[in-house]
Every structure is written in C-alpha cells, then in structure tokens.
Amino acid sequence: MTKEILIQARERISPYIHKTPVLSSGLLNDMVGTQVVFKCENFQKMGAFKMRGASNAILSLSEEERRRGVVTHSSGNFAQAVSLAAQKLGVKAYIVMPENAPQVKKDGVKTYEGEIIECKSTPEAREETADRIQKEKGASFLHPSNQDEVIYGNSTAAIELLEECPNLDVILTPVGGGGLIAGTALAVHYFSDNCKVIGGEPMEADDAFRSLISGKIETNDSFHTVADGLRTNLGDRNFPIIQKHVDKIIRVEEDEIINAMQLIWERMKIIIEPSSAVPFAAVLKNKEEFENRNVGIILSGGNVDVKNLPF
After folding, report:
1. What is the DSSP string of 106-168?
2. How far is it, in rounded angstroms, from Cα 272 to Cα 38?
3. CB 150 within 8 A of CB 143
4. Which of 45, 50, 105, 106 is catalytic?
5. Are residues 129 and 96 in contact, defined by beta-carbon separation less than 8 angstroms?
6. How far apart are the first and last CA of the chain?
7. Residue 251 β-bridge partners
8. Mean pLDDT computed over every residue of the chain
9. CB-based contacts of 169: which residues, under 8 Å, 6+ apart?
10. Is 75 a catalytic residue?
11. What are 10-59's pLDDT values in tens digits?
12. How far apart are the C-alpha atoms of 144 and 73, rounded to whole Å?
C-alpha cells in the first residue's frame, strides 16, 4: 500500500465523479465552539460518497470482467453507486437489496438501470444471494465497504478535503461497513502530518466501537437505528486499517442523530440522510474535546426519503 495507489485512484475516477464542495456555518461553529467544515458528499453523483469507491472498483476490472457484469449487495447508496457507475461504463449491474431498503433507494437503482434482486434483511441473506448471482452470471462481486479498490476510491473525498483545508486537526466520518473511515484514514496518513481520524457510530449499531476494544471484528445483535446506512459490520480488509490509523470511535444516541440531522437541514439548508448526521452528533456531544480544533466532517450522503423524515 503506497500513496501512489491513492493518487492513481483519484486520477482514475475523476472524470466520473463530482469534486464536491466544502461548506461551513457560522451558527453551527458558535454552537460547538470551534471551526467545522463539511465535505458535502450529499452533492456527489447519485447522492453519496459511494460513487467514488464503486467507480474505482469497476474501472479496476479487466475488459472481460466488465463484459460479464458486476454484482453487489447494499441497502441503498452503494447499490445506486454501482448502478450508475456501471451504466456510465456500459457494464451490467446486478443489485441485491434487502426487502426493507428505503423505496427512494430502490427507485434510484432502477433509474440507473441496475437489476434489483430482493432478499431478507440480514447480512447472511445478502451474501448468500449475491454469491448465487455471482456463480450464475459470472459477474464480479463488488463489496460495499470491504474491498481494497472501494476503500481507495473512498479515500479521495478526504484527499480533496485536505487539499482545500490543510490545517485540519481531525476528520470525522460515520462508521457502517468501514469503507469510508478506512479510506479517510489512509488519506490522512499519506496526505497530512498532524490530523487525526475519529468515527461516529450509533449506540444501536456500535460494532466498530466494540471491535477496536476487543481487537477482533464484532457484530451487532440489533440494527434499530435511524441511520439505515450504518446497519452493517466491518470487514477483514478495512478493519486492520481502522485499527492502525483511526484514533477512536464516538457513539451517539438516536435522539442525538436526529437532532444533528435537523440542525444541518435547518441551518445549512442542505439535505443529508441520518447516517451523515452521526459525526456531527458526536461533535455536539463532545464539545470540550473538539474545542479550538479545526474539525472536518464528511457528510456521507443525502439519499433520504422526504416522506419519512425522523423529525
């Protein structure tokens, strides 16, 4: 693993993604007592950072592999990202989605011509269904978070953020499958001297918090969190990166996530999904820890069902 691999990933995907804006709010800064900048991946193509990893993964395949198509399992954002990236590159995309995935995310996949195969809402069911499609179609499996090429693609959001704001003391991301925080941690390791990486995680799905304590990948018994994008577990490719390069993980309650989400909607006038609000909730909860530090937050996505808001 070298800095060069991340630079190549960035060059590879740049024609296929947006360089998203970095925004801030004086009012939110006053509220937390520090300078916070938001890297707005909610403005990314298909509405989430996942476009970066999906594009890099598909572009890293051979022509023969692309001809046979790709398959993934996802509750929504990676499903849409793979569908759109595949559509742009003329590749067939098979998308395994849990039956209870938000309708807005299913609609997004259909818009980008991904073929949806529904399954039960468990990690085991997702994997079994994707495995079956992979064998039947000869498609290449793309993991939403636990694949090197996906992690390298995800790193490019933090690389852009550090270029624009080189004085950051800390970058926070939400933690679900671990692909975003692992990519962010690699970017910070190679492109910054003093910056730390901190994860935000729902108390109701705190497997990463427990994994860092136990030193092995833990799982969740329940996924009762409004942050639907974070109802998943770490993997063997991203966990070692997280162990090595992530400073800590802060857990937040459901009402804290909803409050942070509502604040960003109201004060910044931008749409983010609940998962995106988790790191800001962590900063709000721990103001003393972040006081007088330059804080960067990656707003991971904005694919929310506006007919079913938590506030």
Report:
1. HHHHHHTT-EEEEE-SSHHHHHHHHHHHHHHH-PEE--SSSSHHHHHHHHHHHHHHHHH-TT-
2. 11
3. yes
4. 50
5. yes
6. 43
7. 201
8. 95
9. 194, 195, 196, 293, 294, 295
10. yes
11. 999 999 999 999 999 999 999 999 999 999 999 999 999 999 999 999 99
12. 7
**Local structure of 226: helix, strand or coil:** coil
Q: Is there a catalytic annotation at residue 14?
A: no
User: Starting at the edge strand that comes first in sequence, how are the strands of the sheet with 115-119 ordered?
Assistant: 115-119, 93-98, 70-73, 140-141
Task: Give pLDDT, residue 1.
Answer: 66
Distance CA 109, CA 307 (A): 19
Query: Can you tell me which residue has the tokens 């039960």?
Result: 120
Phi, psi angles (nearest 5°) of residue 17: -130, 165
Domain boundaries for CATH 3.40.50.1100 within the chain: 3-48+151-299, 51-141
CATH topology of domain 3-48+151-299: Rossmann fold (3.40.50)
Q: Rounded distance, CA 243 to CA 247, Å? A: 8
- 108-142: pLDDT as tens digits: 899 999 999 999 988 789 899 999 999 999 999 99
The domain defined by 51-141 folds into Rossmann fold (3.40.50)
Give the burial string for 98-137 (b: 16+ CB within 10 Å, else e): beebbebbbebbeebebbeeebeeebebbeebbeebbeee
Are 225 and 204 within 8 A, CB to CB? Answer: yes
Counting Cβ atoms within 10 Å, is residue 234 exposed (0-12), middle (13-18) or buried (19+)? buried
Segment 155-202, tens digit of pLDDT: 999 999 999 999 999 999 999 999 999 999 999 999 999 999 999 999
Catalytic residue among 75, 192, 211, 275: 75
